[in-house]
Structure formats: structure tokens, C-alpha cells
């Protein structure tokens, strides 16, 4: 039964199953390398764990797309039409949601082009990888406890005074964003902080609000970090 199924690729050019599995595994490993590089080099506030996960799954899905198409122009246009319809009907904010949609399209195309082993293997391997990413929380970064946003109305030359206050409460302090405007001194600042004692977060915020030249102080937990 299993042998009959594995040989049941009724497309014009049947696939070599060992080569297909090898290609998907290499795509999985390549996606990991790219994701690890992104995690190590990313800076700023706009970081999303689901985007990191998508970078691992997408190479596998694209590999499956190329194998399903296999130089078939009609199938290629079919893929474009289906994805265009999905994109027109839905606005997806999460990169991983788009990945799920694309995975469903590829599996459907594989079935529609009679590449049944390709449909099953792609479905199983992509599902296993998505479960692995979810269970291991791959891509999550906990280098900092909170993000503090504030407006600094004094001269930028006096910022070391603010830095000293932050360093008293934090083991690590990183200025993630600094926005200035013409016509007045000061800047809008965002800091990532790894607190010495997370339970004293409110003490830090109280001291910041009491400091001369500091206003509009807000904070956000690191686990709430997302696309901004």
C-alpha cells in the first residue's frame, strides 16, 4: 500500500522522493542560518518572533513550490492567480499567517497536479517544523526586561546624567531610538533596560519623572515587544 502511494506521482515528470526530502531538509537548515543571523544582528524596536519563524518555514515552502512547478508555466500562472486572490481578500499583518496561507496553497497545488507524495511530505514536514518553532519558542529574545520611552527636553550634551540614572537601576542599557527635531533642544528617546531588580521598575520610573527635563515617560515589558 505504502509503496503504491509513494509511486503514485502521476505528474508528467515524477519526483525523486529522496532528493525531495534532502532539498526540504537543506532548506530547513538554511532558514535556520538566516534566522540566527537576523537574531544576532537585529537592532531597534521593530522585532517580531513570528517573522523569525517565517524565515525558517518559507525556504521549505518555496522549495516545494519550485518542485511542484517543475518548469510548468501553466501551474506557475495558477499559483500567481490563487495567491493574488488570497492577498486581495485578506490583509495579513502577521508574516507567519502568510506562511500558513502559502503552505496551504502549495499543498493544494501538489494535489491538483497529482503530485500526491509531494503534498503529503510537504504537509507533514512543514507542520512538524511549525510545531517545533512553537514549542521551543524559537526566535524569542529576553536580553532586556523593559523598554522605556521618554522625552528629553534638555541639551543632548547633558544625556550622560540620564545615562547615570539608568545605569543605577540596570545591568545593561541600550539606546534603541533617538529622534530629534529642528527648532528645539532635546529628543524623544527609547531605551532597552536589563534591570538589576525587576521588582523596582516603578522606582526607576518615579525617578525618571522627577528628573528635570524628562517628560512623557512610558514603559513596556520586553515580552510585549512586537512590530512598532
Write a concise synopsis of the structure shown.
Helix content is 56%, strand content 15%. The protein is built from eight helices and four strands; from the N terminus they run ααααααβαββαβ.
The major pleated sheet works out as: 4 strands, antiparallel
Shape: elongated
- Cα separation of the termini: 52 Å
- Helices and strands, in order, run as HHHHHHEHEEHE
Question: Could you tell me the mean pLDDT?
Answer: 76
Class from helix and strand fractions: alpha+beta
Strand arrangement, major sheet: 2-3-1-4
Number of domains: 2
Oligomer state of the chains in this structure = single chain
Tally of contiguous helical segments: 8
Total E-strand runs: 4
Rounded to the nearest angstrom, the radius of gyration is 25 Å
Helix content: 55-70%
Uncertain ranges: 224-228
Amino acid at each position: 500500500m505504502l509503496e503504491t502511494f509513494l509511486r503514485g506521482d502521476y505528474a508528467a515528470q515524477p519526483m525523486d522522493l529522496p532528493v525531495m526530502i534532502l532539498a526540504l531538509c537543506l532548506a530547513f537548515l538554511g532558514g535556520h542560518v538566516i534566522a540566527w543571523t537576523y537574531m544576532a544582528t537585529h537592532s531597534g524596536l521593530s522585532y517580531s518572533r513570528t517573522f523569525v519563524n517565517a524565515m525558517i518555514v518559507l525556504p521549505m515552502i518555496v522549495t516545494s513550490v519550485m518542485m511542484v512547478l517543475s518548469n510548468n508555466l501553466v501551474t506557475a500562472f495558477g499559483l500567481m492567480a490563487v495567491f493574488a486572490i488570497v492577498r486581495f481578500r485578506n490583509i495579513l499583518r502577521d508574516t507567519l499567517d502568510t506562511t500558513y496561507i502559502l503552505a496551504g496553497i502549495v499543498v493544494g497545488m501538489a494535489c491538483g497536479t497529482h503530485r500526491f507524495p509531494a503534498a503529503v511530505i510537504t504537509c507533514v514536514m512543514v507542520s512538524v517544523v511549525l510545531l517545533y518553532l512553537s514549542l521551543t519558542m524559537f526566535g524569542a529574545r529576553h536580553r532586556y526586561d523593559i523598554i522605556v520611552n521618554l522625552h528629553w527636553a534638555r541639551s543632548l550634551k547633558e544625556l550622560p546624567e540620564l545615562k547615570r540614572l539608568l545605569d543605577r537601576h540596570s545591568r545593561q542599557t541600550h539606546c534603541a531610538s533617538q529622534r530629534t527635531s529642528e527648532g528645539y533642544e532635546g529628543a524623544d528617546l527609547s531605551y532597552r533596560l536589563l534591570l538589576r531588580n525587576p521588582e523596582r521598575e516603578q522606582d526607576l520610573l518615579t525617578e525618571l519623572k522627577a528628573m528635570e527635563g524628562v517628560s512623557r515617560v512610558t514603559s513596556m515589558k520586553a515580552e510585549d515587544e512586537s512590530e512598532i
